[in-house]
Amino acid sequence: MKSVLWFVLGLFGGFVLAHLVDKDPRGHEALAEVDARITEFTDRIGEAYRAQEAKIDGIAADVKGAAANAVEATKTAASDAADAAKKTAATLTD
Q: What is the pLDDT of residues 62-71, one digit of tens each?
């Protein structure tokens, strides 16, 4: 419980200090620079995330297409095998 109190007091103190620094023109400029850097960082992370997501979507589409082709090839092979078995059975029964 004691550590939670210190945490809350630290948060409150940080907000008060940031407010006081923001009142000074130099402090306001410094906080604006920090904000700009944070914004740039989050923008870069967002762009990287979207690029990775697009890459993964492309790979998933390729895998989906390959799986569909494999299923179709399996159906064709099974149908051909069934036809061959029917022809062989018909030849043997004749």
A: 999 999 999 9
